[in-house]
């Protein structure tokens, strides 16, 4: 697993349980299985989700004395299956979530550049929620962290362009505001033009370093409108980006499907359109700009203040991305 998140060090722990190497007695924790009629070693390993190149020697050592000529499998034997687990580590997710398993390789060969709106000296839009303030950059960042973790759990390389070492993924309703965010480990300028240029340059620098065939940039914001204006999630792409448009529509269609399933009487009115936004215009990878709702509207605020809803937003974005990745790989 070669997942990288921005410039931080990620340590990948690969734990292959090989007690047969260390002890004369085999642990009872191992699962066992008999080969199917005519099944060879290579097919047996693949059937049990083991990569032959990586796990064949471990498997043979674990099952010494149970093979025929040229390590052929014997139908009357049960074979112990090595337990393999890949553990990922990212302290930006917070102490409770910094260690987590690789769940799949569904997005292997992909790289993502996640850019949260505002940050540093600029909190973005501010909404009133009872006696509290909701700061756009904090909620956009929390949702982005959740999306990053979901992508990484499924084999993607992820770059968090905006980072805050103190926050981690938080489950509070009211997310405390601070101005500790950085962009590529550099201080975020207050001037908007400089701020946008800084993050576009950082995305492009990371893009040049990567070799994955599927590379996408997501810019995540919350909108600010009249308190009475309830809105759905909107997706923007550059007018000349056909791939950006396809991703935006895939995300939009995924949200539509989710609302039909979870809130069938509500409907979904989120749209896709092109916009001449700086980051869309000046980033090299295919990019989509996402507005997650109106931070001023009480109903939209429920989408942000509840941690389960923030996780749902991240999950739905992941589902749409995965569908676009699979569509692209079919070609």
TrEMBL record:
Catalytic function, reaction form: Hydrolyzes the link between N-acetylmuramoyl residues and L-amino acid residues in certain cell-wall glycopeptides
UniProt-listed InterPro entries: MurNAc-LAA_cat (IPR002508), N-acetylmuramoyl_amidase_3 (IPR050695)
Keyword Ribonucleoprotein found: no
Limits of the MurNAc-LAA domain: 114-323
Enzyme Commission code(s) on record: 3.5.1.28
The UniProt record lists the keyword Hydrolase: yes
Keywords in alphabetical order: Hydrolase
UniProt-recorded name of the protein: N-acetylmuramoyl-L-alanine amidase
Organism: Carboxylicivirga marina
